[in-house]
Structures are given as structure tokens and as C-alpha cells.
């Protein structure tokens, strides 16, 4: 099994640019999670999906952030426009069920200049 | 008060030592508990789930105390490869589910 796949692994962009992060969950997993990790705030849940439907987006910091899951094997997290304070590692994770083990992707390291 | 709190450490211990981490949670609706391990510049990975009766996996023992609302992780006979950050994870069921990660406890095992 390939595990959770994320792309790109690294992204450097300038303030104001649009950033799109991509995730392919483990096949058969019904839940997909997007997290953000920074030194200051630790690991924060941004949003999660169940069967492609967003369930809780209360962690999304503001309207500049949006996430979609058009099908069971693909999700995107978009930041438009990006700001330097968005610099962080963004992880995608998936699980079979809500209370089950979450398997994380390798993360996308985002730097907004 | 944070919903999940951990001692950030770092814990510096020699090889072979026994080390224990605690994690407290504030929401009584907390339902599931886990310990994850995160190596430097890597993703978090499940170390072990935490069951009400306590559970052991080799050198690792996890315990849950619902009355006092804390979970613990005990590592015996520490190895250099145990050096990592250990994250406490709590899933809260309040109608909807919410996953909360602790800030992590850093462990350094020295030769």
C-alpha cells in the first residue's frame, strides 16, 4: 500500500499567490483530514471529510482557505491569497473510521515570502 | 486552558532508562486516546492506542485514568532510536467528533 500521498513536498511562493496542496488518501479510507503544524501552535486540525463530504471546517483559519474532495481518492487545500503567516507544514491524513488510527502523509512544507 | 496538555520537555535520558510521559485532557466527552510518535521533519505515526484497561506493546505501556482525565506512556529500556516527539491524541465526541493533538513531549536518549 502506497500510504497517503501528498504533493508538492515543498512549496515556496510569494505573498498574494495562490497555493494548492494535494492529497491522495489510502484507498478504502472514508475519512480525510487536513492539518497544519507550526512551532507556535503545534498540530491543528483544519477540516475533515467523510465520504467526500466536509463535516467540520471550524479549524479553517479564514476565508482565504478552502478545501475540496471531488472524489474518494483526491482532495485539495487551497490558500488564496497566501500570506507569510501561512508558512507551516500541512499534513493530510486518512482513516477507516472516525475514531480509528489516522495515517499521515509526508506533509507539504509551505514557505510564503 | 488547553484541551490536551503535555509537558513539552525535553526529556534527556541515558540509554536503558525508564521514562514516563503524562497527558491531561479537559473534556469529559473524550472517547478515544492514542500516542503518536513524530521524528524530526517527518509525519506523525501511530505508536499505540490507549485502552481503558491499559495496554502494553513491547517496551511501551500506555494507561488511561478517566477519573483524573489523563493518559500516560511508559518507555522501558530506552533506545537511541526512541528519540522523538511523542504526541498525545484525544478524540472528543460531542455529537460531532473532534481530534485534538497535544503539543508533544520531546525525548532525547543519549548513549
Structure, explained:
- The complex is a heterodimer of chains A (113) and B (111).
- By secondary structure, chain A is an all-beta fold.
- Chain A has strands spanning 5-7, 10-13, 19-24, 31-38, 42-50, 53-56, 65-71, 74-79, 88-95, 103-104, 108-112.
- The radius of gyration of chain A is 13 Å and the shape is globular.
- In chain B, strands 2, 4, 5, 9, 10 and 11 form a six-stranded mixed β-sheet that branches. Chain B has a five-stranded antiparallel β-sheet with strand order 1-3-8-7-6, with no helix packed on it.
- The chains are: A mainly beta (113), B mainly beta (111).
- The A-B interface holds A 33, 35, 42-45, 48, 55-56, 91, 98-99, 101-107 and B 31-32, 34, 42-46, 49, 87, 91, 93, 96-104.
Q: Mean pLDDT across all residues of chain B, rounded?
A: 93
What portion of residues of chain A belong to β-strands?
over 45%
As a percent range, the share of strand residues of chain B is over 45%
Uncertain residue segments of chain A:
none
N-to-C terminal Cα separation of chain A, in Å?
36 Å
Q: Please report the number of helical segments of chain A.
A: 0
Apparent shape of chain B: globular
Q: What would the keywords be for this entry?
A:
A: 113 residues; mainly beta; seven-stranded mixed beta sheet; four-stranded antiparallel beta sheet; 0% helix; B: 111 residues; six-stranded mixed beta sheet; five-stranded antiparallel beta sheet; 11 strands
Amino acid at each position: 500500500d502506497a500510504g497517503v500521498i501528498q504533493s508538492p513536498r515543498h512549496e515556496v511562493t510569494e505573498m498574494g499567490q495562490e497555493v494548492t496542496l494535494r492529497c491522495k488518501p489510502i484507498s478504502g479510507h472514508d475519512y480525510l483530514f487536513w492539518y497544519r503544524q507550526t512551532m507556535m501552535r503545534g498540530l491543528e486540525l483544519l477540516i475533515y471529510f467523510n465520504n467526500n463530504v466536509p463535516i467540520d471546517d471550524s479549524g479553517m483559519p479564514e476565508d482565504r482557505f478552502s478545501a475540496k474532495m471531488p472524489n474518494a481518492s483526491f482532495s485539495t487545500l487551497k490558500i488564496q491569497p497566501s500570506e507569510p503567516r501561512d508558512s507551516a507544514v500541512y499534513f493530510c491524513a486518512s482513516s477507516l473510521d472516525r475514531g480509528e488510527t489516522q495515517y499521515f502523509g509526508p506533509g507539504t512544507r509551505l514557505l510564503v515570502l | 486552558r488547553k484541551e490536551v496538555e503535555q509537558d513539552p520537555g525535553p526529556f534527556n535520558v541515558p540509554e536503558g532508562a525508564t521514562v514516563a510521559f503524562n497527558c491531561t485532557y479537559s473534556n469529559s466527552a473524550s472517547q478515544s486516546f492514542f500516542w503518536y510518535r513524530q521524528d524530526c521533519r517527518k509525519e506523525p505515526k501511530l505508536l499505540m492506542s490507549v485502552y481503558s484497561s491499559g495496554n502494553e506493546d513491547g517496551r511501551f505501556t500506555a494507561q488511561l485514568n478517566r477519573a483524573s482525565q489523563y493518559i500516560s506512556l511508559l518507555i522501558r529500556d530506552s533506545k537511541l532510536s526512541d528519540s522523538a516527539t511523542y504526541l498525545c491524541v484525544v478524540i472528543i465526541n460531542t455529537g460531532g467528533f473532534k481530534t485534538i493533538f497535544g503539543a508533544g513531549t520531546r525525548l532525547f536518549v543519549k548513549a
